[in-house]
Design brief:
Uridine Diphospho-n-acetylenolpyruvylglucosamine Reductase, domain 3; 2 domains; binds flavin-adenine dinucleotide
Length: 446
């Protein structure tokens, strides 16, 4: 039965990065599509807005609820798997971390992933979550079908050839509530990971060559230093021997050094900003090489327990070295003290209407600030980075911090107006809007 929480019992909604919070008047937890249709139909006749909740891992205001928050925690799991065609259909509320176990009996895996697996599959696809690798698109490119309840209460089944799929597969939560998604998977595979400390000069200037040469390449550069960590993953077959540091060693590297010790360093940097360059030098010099082989998911996914705020822009792939040199100069000139590394990745071209890689391969530059850093200083840093990205006609990640509006976005997305016309059909009354979507898509029909 539909579960409803309202009034003072309704919990305050907050996102992971602590950048957004809201108090919806109602939280509903539907168990199936029929209950969801009932919620949407009633909300429509009452003139209330509806927001499907993911895992709250977006930094931007995209997930902020208004009147009614739809909690999809009772709509999780595998609906069906077709191992011969490598396809699976998952309920919309399924978290990424639940998927490997659901796919294992069918010997399937997701083709590519981002850094973490706390998100829901529909939250991740709705914002264009991506990993790295020039032969691989973001997670939304794996979507080959969906069922969505639109703002009119209609249940639409969208197949692979449906002209609305390129909108629904990456819909910003603006088109309706996605109740299930069908993904094109790949046979389960192992990967060999190589992490190598390199100079920042080498990482930046060698990025284009490395990203073309390897399945998955990314690097982290520590501002104020010439230190970077290059990560390269090579896809292996369905069977490989797990090798490299054992569980204890990986716990020491990933949890103790990468998270716990790093947290302490961020705290010192927050209290004594002038110490940040020295801390960054120490952290940069402590980077060490390691190689290991494991299942694809264990290699793709890291644990992130130090909270931060993030802005990420996609730019033309070839512009990446220039963008990074400009950011480096800007950080020095403006004397920012940045304790978080800058992450650089790439993704294959796709044809999804609002994908950051729509129409051409893209490089990605993500900048972060520790969540307890001085807010005004962090905002000024993000603004200066954003100005560089905008000069390069960059496309902001929909789930990360940015200040772009519909006018700018129409200029960098050739299929922007096509998406708006799908929105007019799917959500004519703007039931799924919120202030963020009003800003990036515009509040009214074109
Ligand atoms: C620690 C951390 C690491 C990250 N790493 C990466 C990374 O490697 N690569 C990357 O690209 N991004 C990354 N991100 C960003 C993150 O992947 C995206 O912001 C993602 O959208 C978060 O998913 P979520 O489930 O938390 O969705 P939320 O943030 O809760 O929601 C996002 C949007 O999806 C909508 N939505 C959710 N469920 C549904 C549904 N069933 N139907 C329709 N709309 C729905 C929401 O309404 C909202 O509009 C990271 C974020 C964090 C905090």
């Amino acid at each position: 039965m539909l579960s409803i929480t309202q009034g003072s019992a309704t919990p305050v909604w907050r996102n992971w990065g602590g950048t957004q919070s809201a108090a919806p008047s109602l939280v509903v937890t539907p168990h199936d599509t029929a209950e969801l249709v009932e919620v949407i139909t009633r909300a429509r006749s009452d003139g209330r807005t509806v927001k499907p909740a993911g895992a709250g891992h977006s930094f931007s205001g995209i997930g902020v609820p208004g009147d009614i928050l739809v909690d999809l925690s009772a709509m999780r799991g595998l609906i069906e798997a077709d191992a011969d065609r490598s396809r699976v259909t998952l309920r919309g509320g399924t978290h990424l971390f639940e998927i490997p176990e659901l796919l294992a009996p069918h010997r399937l895996a997701m083709a590519n992933l981002g850094d973490v697996d706390r998100q829901t599959i529909t939250g991740a696809t709705s914002t264009g979550t991506h990993g790295t690798g020039l032969r691989f698109g973001g997670i939304s490119t794996q979507v080959v079908g969906a069922t969505i309840v639109t703002g009119t209460g209609a249940v639409r089944t969208i197949g692979e050839d449906d002209p609305d799929l390129p909108a629904v597969a990456l819909g910003l939560g603006a088109l309706g509530v996605v109740v299930d998604l069908t993904l094109a998977c790949v046979p389960a595979f192992y990967m060999r990971a190589e992490e190598l400390p390199v100079s920042a000069d080498d990482a930046i200037d060698g990025f284009l060559e490395r990203v073309h040469a390897h399945d998955h390449h990314e690097f982290y550069w520590f501002p104020h230093t010439n230190c970077a960590l290059a990560k390269t993953n090579t896809r292996l077959g369905p069977i490989a021997e797990v090798s490299g540091p054992g569980r204890v060693r990986r716990w020491i590297d990933d949890e103790l050094l990468s998270n716990k010790l790093y947290h302490g360093m961020c705290e010192i940097g927050r209290r004594i900003p002038s110490a940040v360059p020295t801390i960054a030098q120490v952290a940069g010099r402590a980077l060490s090489a390691r190689t290991y082989t494991d299942t694809s998911t264990r290699v793709f996914i890291s644990s992130r327990t130090v909270r931060f705020r993030e802005m990420e822009y996609a730019v033309e792939l070839d512009a990446i070295p220039d963008v990074l040199h400009e950011i480096r100069t800007m950080i020095d000139r403006r004397r920012y003290r940045v304790s978080f590394p800058i992450e650089v990745r790439a993704a294959a071209a796709d044809d999804l209407m609002l994908s950051t890689a729509s129409g051409g391969a893209r490089g990605y530059v993500a900048v972060h600030r520790y969540h307890r850093d001085n807010p005004a200083d962090a905002a000024a840093y993000f603004a200066d980075v954003e100005a560089i990205m905008v000069e390069h006609r960059g496309r902001p990640h929909w789930g990360k911090m940015h200040t772009r509006d519909a006018e700018y976005l129409r200029g960098v997305y050739p299929r922007f107006d096509e998406f708006l016309s799908v929105r007019d059909r799917f959500d004519p009354d703007r039931m799924f809007t919120n202030p963020y979507l009003d800003r990036v898509l515009g509040p009214t029909a074109v």
